Amino acid sequence: MRASLVLFCLLAASCQTRPAPETATTAPPARTVPDAPLRETRWVLRQLGTQAVSVPANTAEAFLTLRAEGQAEGNGSCNRFRGSFFSEKPGELRFSPLMSTRMACPALDTENGFTRVLAQSSRYRISGDTLRLFDAADAPLARLEAVYLH
């Protein structure tokens, strides 16, 4: 009897259950945002070159809207602008000279920088809700973000 008890204890000790090995957990798939359309989207200026754009008090966010019929319109922060744009090849985006009102405002530097970037623009890329403008040498000019009105 004693021998059977010792044998039972040895067998029980050798059959100890081990915790199941941890498996690598996979992160849930990243939520992919479809690319916003270039046209008929309100693109708000977030960055000029490498500088983030801030909105001073009593001014509006600078934005750009490209209409289906080829018209570009927007606001540089204080002044509205309008002109034409051309996108004849995929990734191409050029602007005609823009007409603008000329009111003075605290965000005039941002406004002048924005219109200068639009004049230099020759290419674009959209990734999700982000529009990036580039010059002919593929140097980054600006980053804009799609804002959807509810």
Automatic annotation (TrEMBL):
Keywords: Signal. Residues 36-144 form the DUF306 domain. Residues 1-19 form the signal peptide. It comes from the Bacteria. InterPro entries: DUF306_Meta_HslJ (IPR005184), HslJ-like_sf (IPR038670), Hsp_HslJ-like (IPR053147). It holds the Pfam family META. This is META domain-containing protein. It comes from Hymenobacter ruricola.
